[in-house]
Amino acid sequence: xxxxxxxxxxxxxxxxxxxxxxxxxxxxxxxxxxxxxxxxxxxxxxxxxxxxxxxxxxxxxxxxxxxxxxxxxxxxxxxxxxxxxxxxxxxxxxxxxxxxxxxxxxxxxxxxxxxxxxxxxxxxxxxxxxxxxxxxxxxxxxxxxxxxxxxxxxxxxxxxxxxxxxxxxxxxxxxxxxxxxxxxxxxxxxxxxxxxxxxxxxxxxxxxxxxxxxxxxxxxxxxxxxxxxxxxxxxxxxxxxxxxxxxxxxxxxxxxxxxxxxxxxxxxxxxxxxxxxxxxxxxxxxxxxxxxxxxxxxxxxxxxxxxxxxxxxxxxxxxxxxxxxxxxxxxxxxxxxxxxxxxxxxxxxxxxxxxxxxxxxxxxxxxxxxxxx
Amino acid sequence: xxxxxxxxxxxxxxxxxxxxxxxxxxxxxxxxxxxxxxxxxxxxxxxxxxxxxxxxxxxxxxxxxxxxxxxxxxxxxxxxxxxxxxxxxxxxxxxxxxxxxxxxxxxxxxxxxxxxxxxxxxxxxxxxxxxxxxxxxxxxxxxxxxxxxxxxxxxxxxxxxxxxxxxxxxxxxxxxxxxxxxxxxxxxxxxxxxxxxxxxxxxxxxxxxxxxxxxxxxxxxxxxxxxxxxxxxxxxxxxxxxxx
Amino acid sequence: xxxxxxxxxxxxxxxxxxxxxxxxxxxxxxxxxxxxxxxxxxxxxxxxxxxxxxxxxxxxxxxxxxxxxxxxxxxxxxxxxxxxxxxxxxxxxxxxxxxxxxxxxxxxxxxxxxxxxxxxxxxxxxxxxxxxxxxxxxxxxxxxxxxxxxxxxxxxxxxxxxxxxxxxxxxxxxxxxxxxxxxxxxxxxxxxxxxxxxxxxxxxxxxxxxxxxxxxxxxxxxxxxxxxxxxxxxxxxxxxxxxxxxxxxxxxxxxxxxxxxxxxxxxxxxxxxxxxxxxxxxxxxxxxxxxxxxxxxxxxxxxxxxxxxxxxxxxxxxxxxxxxxxxxxxxxxxxxxxxxxxxxxxxxxxxxxxxxxxxxxxxxxxxx
Lengths: 373, 244, 368
What we know:
- The complex is a heterotrimer.
- By secondary structure, chain A is of the alpha/beta class.
- Chain A folds into 2 domains: 2-40 and 183-368, no CATH class; 47-154, abc type-2 transporter like domain (abc type-2 transporter like fold).
- In chain A, 67% of the residues lie in helices and 9% in strands.
- Chain A has helices at residues 2-17, 21-39, 58-69, 82-90, 104-110, 125-154, 177-208, 210-215, 221-249, 259-283, 287-303, 316-322, 326-340, 344-368, and strands at 47-53, 73-75, 96-100, 113-121, 162-170.
- In chain A, helix 7 (177-208) packs antiparallel against helix 9 and helix 10 packs antiparallel against helix 13.
- The two termini of chain A are 26 Å apart.
- The relative contact order of chain B is 0.17.
- By secondary structure, chain B is an alpha/beta fold.
- Chain B has a 6-stranded mixed β-sheet with strand order 6-7-8-3-9-10, sandwiched between helices.
- Chain B is built from 9 helices and 10 strands.
- The model of chain B has no long low-confidence stretch (mean pLDDT 88).
- Chain C has helices at residues 2-17, 19-39, 58-69, 83-91, 104-110, 125-146, 170-201, 203-209, 214-242, 252-276, 280-290, 292-297, 310-316, 320-334, 338-367; strands spanning 47-53, 73-78, 96-100, 113-121, 155-163.
- In chain C, strand 1, helix 3 and strand 2 (73-78) form a beta-alpha-beta unit.
- In chain C, helix 1 packs across helix 9 (214-242).
- Chains in contact: A-B, A-C.
């Protein structure tokens, strides 16, 4: 135990002394949390919409006004021709173009039917899908208004049947994206920070030659590993705490569940990540190599974590892969506990998995740390 | 009088794949002597030494250090030895005091003992002025003397020095050897590798390794007589030429 | 020149000798493209939902049938009463619950109006909103069928056309992003480390006192990475063309030139990082912690830039990745040429120059 304390003391001194690293450890992650959380949104708004009105009638104007009134769209100046509108889309100036054909109003009155062409930049397919839904909603309302007027004239007789949907958004009724992203990004930042630091740690001593000096001492493997892990574990918990304070007081993310559960889960989770870092460190010879491997895993883990894109939408085999991803579990749990108030019985499965993971990772880290070769 | 053997090495071999770095070497080191382990770069001296200090596992053969088997009792070996490597290996970003505290701590010294050691080392090496300076800011010669003292913190029976004077000026080398003599006089066994042949003259006995085998082992005086030359350097050159 | 080639050769040896790093260097783009092509999508599919049917009549059965036929939904279980909703949400098993009111069919027949409540777990606002939209669309279709006998007056029919990506494949949107992130991080990270490494090990001094000019030393160090990054870019483009049928509407030659320009911009950023960091550790943390998330989030790779708050849209302008993504999308999907992309190209050139000037300044200060 005493031996471990000496290692811990030394590690803390080295961390605190490195003036170049301190801001990277403490400021960079929190700054990113503050800034990037605002950017991470799939919400589609301010859609740049323009139109080509070949009809120039009352109806066409009314239709465009409907779009103007919508908060989803930012309606720009109209284009005199489709060709010019296409060019603007190529330049990336507009996202959606409405083309109102000649005789639009005439057809509407005569045939009770008129076509409206809509062109959408679909490079981002998901966004284009949402834009399409919004266009259809607005046109649908326009149709509905015409219909209501018509039935008011006709009387109640042939009133059509109506199915009304009442949406209700639980836990987040303003659909505020930040409450969803802040906890997730916090998890990510802590993961990256602790993985990179621990991944570089032992290999750095290898490169500097001090590891050999340690290896000729009678120190036990587990003492060394624990002494190395602990400072970063504390660091992770500190950043976690500051991050939670930021999410509470800056982003007003609700904290419905028990904060103790979050700390319980993070304390085990950090062990997984740190163990993984040390494992990488043991298997590499240079810091450059270690970072490269850590980077590889982090990127794959981030993408497969459900942080940015939903796991349910992945094919089954990919969903199964995510079961091996520790980040997935923490992202899931922190969101469940903070935003929905899930309790211990809701997350015990994730907790068991992550605990097994921690045992596995650190077991491997101790085993693979060779004092001899 | 039969002297007490403190290191006994028999048929020690180390191979890396097809390459055999150390080919079945056998020798003994007596308690309290300064044993020089000589050889050109790549002759296998560092590999052999790493087996003796328990950070490299021998492929075959046996060795005991301080009465403990390096194969099976590596931890007990480590308690009884000190080691200083050719690559300066203390923490550059810790101060002198902090380095001593750390290494003392992992060798199990008490806080009180550590305090006394710090005082003792600082006085002996005349480093009191810079006790709180980062080790990284010290000149190489000072660092090496400090590393030697750190290797002796836990008062080991044997201390292994791997090219301890690489890259320092002749005066510092001289001073360093004075430290080695002082320690040997206290009864500590010194096992030192070097490729400075003049340093070989300071040793009680030297062995010369060429291509993984020990080609000669005796006192410097006897070796010079045997090869009929007047310096260790000449001994070494003759040996190396014979092999080619 | 001969000296320069010798130096570059030494750098190549360093890089190629490290098998593990090479494996990752080339495995990374392949792994990422495969994941984005086959696994990751920002569409909403297979969402687990639950049904609370208080009516259980013929009409609700028809609607439930339609919902379960949709690829978007996956009906996980039935719920018997309202109090269960909370607990299924907390377990995270389902994302939404559809509640059919009591006597749904009768209300529809007598009062010509039926109500379906869509309760969604809005912790993920995007999924919640999309689920609601999809459900509404399904119900509207159903409503249309109900009313097919009732004569409807005027209707405007929307005919949507999806430009540049008619099948709305999400991989088309991600390929330019993956390419950007990989090129940026590989170039910036590798150069910043390899230069600081020489600094830390003291070998930089040896190189600088050699007859080589400092600029030649730096050029020699970055040159191999231009080459390696370019191979990566080629691998990504080839995979996306042959596996995901991604078109290259514009000029491949221009795409290559722009990629080299972007790689150079990233390399100069790497050099800049190395001039401000003393240790490899610092360089690594700046290039990984400092670059990774901003490049992923603020470049338009995953999240649409137009939806971000204005200050962030302004900030995104200083991310070189943003401009390169616009260029790659433009060339590959829109088929536009330099006449449309000159502005973005100039911005990248400007950034490269800026990073170079700052690096040289920093470097000079040190020498004095």
